[in-house]
Amino acid sequence: MLKNGSPSSEIRQQLAGAGTTSFDVEPMPPGYSHLGVAVQCSGTGKWSASLDGVGGKEVSSDCSLNGGAAGLFDISDPAASQTVTVKVADGTDIWVTIFADSPDEADK
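Given the sequence above, the corresponding structure tokens read:
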């Protein structure tokens, strides 16, 4: 999905599950202000991801095993732990990559 070492991204966790699943996420490393979620999932349905405490913002896309899709959440307190919830239909397998991102770094 993502490769560590991108100029402005750092992979934090890679996880797998089935059905709607919540993941605890470690605090962002210094200098990072966004949490990214990339999802691949089985089947022909859709997935959505939300970050607890971010005012109902949600990212979503169709399930795919070919590349997947990703979304970013602005983190108001990067030093705090976060919880990401990925929603899919029951029985759908998911593979999730959680990454720290600092979009402004790419512009420097």
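The domain at 9-101 is CATH 2.60.120.380 (Jelly Rolls). Try to locate this feature in the token string yourself.
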